[in-house]
């Protein structure tokens, strides 16, 4: 498996689901490559980590994701999926202001 570190912004609020394998937090990250082109990554964070992280993962927030990368294809287009082992938060969406904006976004997992 290929291991990656991706830093980008969330394309939507994270979704927390329950499955037969336990809780899973699904989220999409948009990251720019060295040419300035955007690549989208579908990510999953399982278990208690996913449950804890979901409430902090809102559209536009910056995250860094570490995990295993899988390549799939949908309708002839490449898809990038990351099975996340770690997630770190880098900031709130730009439109957030006020007292909450000064709070730390680092969540220890």
- Compute the number of strand runs: 6
Which secondary-structure class do the elements indicate?
mainly beta
**Unreliable runs, pLDDT <50, ≥5 residues?**
96-109
Order of helices and strands: EEEEHEE
CATH architecture: Beta Barrel
CATH class: Mainly Beta
- The whole-number mean of residue pLDDT values reads 86
Which strand-content bin applies to the residues? over 45%
Estimate the helix proportion, in percent.
under 10%
Name the shape in a single word: globular
In DSSP terms, counting alpha (H) and pi (I) runs of 4 or more, how many helices?
A: 1
What is the radius of gyration?
A: 14 Å
CATH fold annotation: OB fold (Dihydrolipoamide Acetyltransferase, E2P)
What's the assembly state of these chains? single chain
> Strands across the major sheet, in which order?
1-3-4-6-5
Question: What number of structural domains do the residues give?
Answer: 1
CATH superfamily: Nucleic acid-binding proteins
The separation of the N and C termini measures 23 Å
Major β-sheet profile: 5 strands, mixed, barrel
Summarize the structure.
This protein has 109 residues and is mainly β.
What does the model show?
By secondary structure, this protein is mainly β. It has one domain: OB fold (Dihydrolipoamide Acetyltransferase, E2P) (Beta Barrel). Helix content is 7%, strand content 57%. It has one helix and six strands; from the N terminus they run E-E-E-E-H-E-E. It has a five-stranded mixed barrel. The longest helix is centred in the middle third of the chain and has 8 residues, at 47-54. It is globular, with a radius of gyration of 14 Å. It starts with a strand and ends in an 18-residue tail after the last strand.
């Amino acid at each position: 498996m290929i291991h990656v570190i991706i830093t980008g912004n969330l394309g939507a609020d994270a979704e927390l689901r329950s499955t037969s394998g336990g809780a899973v937090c699904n989220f999409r990250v948009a990251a720019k490559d060295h040419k300035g082109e955007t690549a989208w990554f579908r990510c999953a964070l399982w278990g208690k980590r996913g449950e804890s992280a979901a409430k902090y993962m809102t559209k536009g927030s910056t995250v860094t994701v570490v995990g295993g990368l899988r390549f799939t294809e949908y309708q002839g287009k490449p898809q990038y999926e990351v099975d996340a082992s770690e997630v770190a938060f880098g900031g709130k969406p730009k439109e957030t202001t006020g007292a909450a904006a000064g709070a730390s976004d680092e969540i220890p997992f």
